[in-house]
Amino acid sequence: DQQVKQNSPSLSVQEGRISILNCDYTNSMFDYFLWYKKYPAEGPTFLISISSIKDKNEDGRFTVFLNKSAKHLSLHIVPSQPGDSAVYFCAASGGAQKLVFGQGTRLTINP
Amino acid sequence: NAGVTQTPKFQVLKTGQSMTLQCAQDMNHNSMYWYRQDPGMGLRLIYYSASEGTTDKGEVPNGYNVSRLNKREFSLRLESAAPSQTSVYFCASSELRVDGYTFGSGTRLTVV
Predict the structure, then answer these.
(1) Residue B78's Cα: distance from chain center in Å?
(2) Dihedral in degrees, nearest 10, Cα atoms B75, B77, B82, B87
(3) Closest chain B residue to the Cα of A5, Cα to Cα
(4) How many Å lie between the alpha carbon of A66 and the closest alpha carbon of chain B?
């Protein structure tokens, strides 16, 4: 039972354009959502988060949008840069602080 | 540098062998976690420790045991390794949800 789903295993975007990564969840008790970025041979690193009381959070080139009614969140990266090429994991938690992760999306930024 | 340190980085085991993966954090975090990463499966929680002296099962605990030795250290033990335990293992720690988790760099384990 996959509570957090990233249905796109991979995404290819041209440098300078917008990258949009999507994530769906099924558990309505989730109230906090995060995105992590992972380079090969390294651990995931925290990128950006959003509480369920908000529908948008921005940090520089990164914006996370939350649609609670659709149980959907997305990460927008604009403009995309070569260093953004990585695997991105969506994660969610519901009060107990334990995070449930999605399967990950491999983002490739092409020059 | 502050963070989460995992040892070893790589390990090859024969089926039936045992080993312990070590994890230590120097951020004074209360909570620590062990995840495994498999292709197409994302990161799945094996065990976690909300605070020193407590441990709880996660999503995929079978075949593993853990010890929260003190506030800094949280080890993961495979008593009798199986090929299905071939994976990349990540340890993480956290304090406040707003900060997310801090992950170690991982242990790549192969069981043959």
Answers:
(1) 11
(2) 0
(3) B42
(4) 16
pLDDT at residue A43 greater than cutoff 90: yes
Chain B contact present for A111, CB below 8 A: no
> Could you tell me the pLDDT band of residue B97, with boundaries at 50, 70 and 90?
low
pLDDT classification of B1: cutoffs 50, 70, 90: low
Instruction: For residue B40, name the pLDDT band (cuts at 50, 70, 90).
Output: confident
DSSP β-ladder status, B10-13 and B107-111: parallel
CA distance A50 to chain B (A): 9
A99 touches chain B (CB under 8 A): yes
| Selected residues 58-97 of chain B with any CB under 8 Å from a CB in chain A | 58, 90, 92, 94, 97
Secondary structure, 3-state, A17-39: CCEEEEEEECCCCCCEEEEEEEC
- A95: pLDDT strictly greater than 90: no
